Structure prediction request, 551 residues.
Amino acid sequence: MHKPQVPALGAEGWFTDGDEPALVGNRCTACGTVFFPAATFACRNPDCDGNEFEPASLSRRGTVWSYTDAQYQPPPPYVPRNDPYEPFAIAAVELPDEGMVVLGQVADGYTLDDLHVGGQVELVVETLFEDDDHEYRIWRWKPL
Amino acid sequence: MEAAVTAGTTSSHDIAVLGVGMHPWGKWGRNFVEYGVDAARRALDDAGVSWRDIQFVAGADTVRNGYPGYVAGATFAQALGWSGQQVASCYAACASGATALAAARAQILAGLCDVALVVGADTTPKGFLAPTAGDRPDDPDWLRFRLLGATNPTYFALYARRRMDLYGATERDFAKVKVKNARHGLHNEYARYRKEVTEDEVLASPIVASPLHLLDICATSDGGAAIVVSSMAYARRQCVDEPVRVRGISTVTPTFPNTVIEMPNFSTDSSAALAPPPLTFRDSIAAAAYEEAGLGPEDMDVAEVYDLSSALELDWYENIGLCKAGEAERLINDGDTALGGKGVTVNPSGGLACFGEAVPAQAIAQVCEVTWQLRGQAGSRQVDDASAGVTVNQGLFGHGSSVILSR
Prediction:
């Protein structure tokens, strides 16, 4: 029996799930600046007074800007997935088309050994943690 | 000697540092107000100014001590004894102290007051700094913990790893920063950690966020610091002939698009529509203070930089103009930034490595240390003939903080 999968609290609408998942931000219709998470009311380009946005799927592949891991269990509101705690890796990934860097945990099964600055990664969506009722989903970076 | 001449010039936006004071850093577990009052009384004493004479009070706020912390200016003023002064309370995360000092300076330079007190103090919990409790899915600082498990050391580690992959830095290079700072702070009576550390001890300590070890990362501390500042005319009336002067203060924000990932964000700005500015945010912080002071890195003798991690201190060398990008490892390996080295001495106080961070007090403490250095009162950690110094740090969400002082 699979539990219903829902985006983690706070990340609703931030990504699509499925075979080719993608981060979903938005783009200012006046100047083209991309925002992730999506801008909600005003373009933050100081030369632009736009306040209308269209949804924008971000590049699914990017280049590792840097990476690290969490050897100690982060404090709440982080919810550990396993007991005892299992460290995980985090990558900052440069998306060339958007000209931005996006953080994400690294996909299950991959460690620091699979990463280097300049390496290629792809977006996946996996389970961040689960409770009795739901699996809470989140985007992650998978080394290629 | 060219530098000394430049540093000695008086400009119309100088103010005088009349007095500085600190409560020792530690894990005392008492109310933060107590540290602030102690530091304030020491600074007033050092200045030879009575509390009743202070015309403006600027408090640097703490967000971890309930409502009194959000209104720190009034909290300290009440504890020192209500005297009807003008008051301000400033929160800018790690930059709160510089923001409070900037508020005091603005009052003085506008001619609205002659003499002001700036105070910051904190009592901190043990362990990682974490967001306050309760579900706040619209707060990036809450979300980064919930969605990513990204702590503060996560971000420090991303910068450190990048130095390794881009410039060939090693974990041992980072450990050398810790060793230097531990040696600097050894006899600093205000420092919490006063113990020599070896490179091997740093490297043998557990990894928190690769490549950073526990001893690479600063602790959180209780502490308090205060400064009495005045107009140059007031200083002369107090018969202080050559006070240490504040020459420049920078509290700049980033310039869009900021393409370096910053705590607590998930992402950087996008440069799809507008090219990044010539200077990164961290490069721009001290640059704005230098420009205001009419001084440059070549004029500096001492620097207090925000070594949240040992590796981050190396980033700051480049950000404040001590060397070009990728050259900081050479500076630490050649001993240039150590006391007695041939470069600008960095963190003679021992830095955050010896203090641990007491957020609203830390930027003020940096100014206290540079003041003691410029007065020649730093004892065994004195930088020879120091005539000018720079402090730098950065507050969460985009608050720059840098102060230039000179004799």
In short: Chain A has a mean pLDDT of 95. Chain A is about 0% helix and 40% strand.
